[in-house]
Predict the structure.
Amino acid sequence: MSELEILSNLVETGKSKEVVQKVQELVDQGYDTNIILNQGLLKGMNEIGLKWKAGKAFIPEVLICARALNMGMDLLQEYIVTQPNQKEEGFFIGTVKGDKHDIGKNLVGMMLKSKGLKVVDLGTDVDANAFIAAVKEHNARFVCLSALLTTTMLYFKQIVEDFKQAGLREQVTILCGGAPVSEEYSRECGCDYYRNDALACAELIAELAKE
Amino acid sequence: MNSIDRMLATINHKQPDRTPVYPIVSGVTRFLNNSSYYYWATDALVCADALIKAQELLDLDCIITLTDLSVEASDFGQKIVYPENEAAYPDSSDHLLKSLDDYDLVQEIDPTSGKRMSEHIKLCDILVQRKGSKVPIIAFVFGPLGILSMLRGQSDLYLDLYDDPASVHQALEKITNTLIRYCDLLLETGIHAIMLDTLFASQSIMSKEMWLEFEGPYVKRIAEFIHSKGRMVMIHNCGNGIYFDAQIEMMHPEVISFLHIPADCESLEDIKDKYGSKTTLAGVISPAWLVSAKTADVEKECKRLIDIFGKDGGFILATGCEYPANMSLDHAKTICQVAKTYNPYKK
């Protein structure tokens, strides 16, 4: 097994301390930071995502894996040299107004991260103005809305409407998800896409982002 | 048949005069006595009045005392938020257990000393006095792991399961002992059953093995206690792909209230084949679907479910989770109407 495969496995099994050690070892051995990131850290997260999708891993496994990934990335960050004019596209995620549930939203964020995408987490209880302000400020193309309650999913419609009023509806692709949400309801609200799990959502965004 | 006869017939897998019905009307009943969500959830008299009004208005076949999932956590010391128009929830910025070191803060408590649990006991008492001779009264209790997740926060709890399982078990033991005492007090009011919410026994959260390790043994003890008192155990679990087999093995429930197809089934018909004789199935109308459904669609869906599940009893027509708390009762009326009028099994 190669060093990068070992790192990937450590991430996948959520061995945080060992991940940090291994990342340091690889940096010290002169491995390219992008290779450590893509073929080690993100590969491990992606693997657990696939297992999750297949019903072979569950939220606790995904969370320990994400923790290991984050710890590895925090260390690696110190060695990554960013280009001065490099601008990454951000994907804005948030749980809508009135809803404090964040696990689903966080899982989407983790899966996006595992695809190497930059995530801007607006948090929970986010109103339409906050989504719109973030999109304006960053000229963003994608917004992901999450809701866990039948009382709060109703707010999706308001957000879509407010994006129209702000003249930004054509600019943004709005995705939504959450336990009570369905494809049909998503359409009714005027969202562009619905996905019923975090990995499927991340896969869709990764595809859309290529366009 | 009155509602008790009807429910008993279906639970004993005999054909009742018609399908019993209970669209889980909880928070929405506050509109019937114009109470705020807070008072409805925290004042037994207000809540009892609303639930009884709903039972009489809709001629419901039972009353379930689901107010919110924070009742027990609140009395264990968790700070709770009471929004104006939705169910109470724990303050996620101020969990009782802020780190692994805080697990010792979970101690056994006397349910009569906690405001919310004692109000719930009082609620059951009022309902039994006023309706219990004709309508089954079912007390709703959150499972031990669910309560612990309210005290710690779900994400942190999931990490703790790996980082310090011993502390988690220690806390669960104390919560379980409290819940057994709580169930005893609830049963003393004369209620007919206790419905345990086992949210975590679901593919959408954790593996079956993990649930069997962290909640199975505790709910088993609670269920055995309820059965030892001669009352029924019911389960509510609105998760996706729930573990019917493991939960039946642990709790031998008389009723399972559910929303989604279980982990080991392919279809609704499959559930009836596999579990229809082992327990009574309650569900599975989607509350989220109801939000935008038309009356005709609701009628059609109810008839479809009665066709699939109703033969030889063992079925309660219900929503798979709480009826939307801010919607009108129109769809609930339709659901009840279909249960009363559509009976393909009438001899």
Observations:
- The radius of gyration of chain B is 19 Å.
- Strands of chain B lie at 21-22, 63-64, 80-81, 89-90, 137-142, 193-197, 232-237, 255-258, 280-285, 315-319.
